[in-house]
Amino acid sequence: MRMPVPLLLRVLFYYPDHPLLIAPELTLQTEDIVPEIPRINELLSTWQRNSGVIFNRILLAGGSLQRPTRVRHVSDVFQLN
After folding, report:
1. Which residues contact 27 (CB under 8 A, 6 or more apart)?
2. How do residues 9-63 score in pLDDT, each as one tens digit?
3. Domain region containing 37
4. Residue 25 lies in a domain
């Protein structure tokens, strides 16, 4: 059984009555099973069915929990103007 992984979803959408006016974006962080993403698919299909929006762009980002994250510590930070 696959474990859910954290994902970030960003959706740009518009309403059919106003195709030139792109609404503010929706940004959502959730956990879902990759690559099927059933939770996100259900959210998007329900939202589109109930509100009639048209999606302009859907961006999905996430990391893999299959490999450990590397953390590096630094001793000094230099900033140039």
Report:
1. 8, 9, 10, 11
2. 999 888 888 877 767 788 999 999 888 889 999 999 999 999 888 888 898 988 6
3. 5-62
4. yes
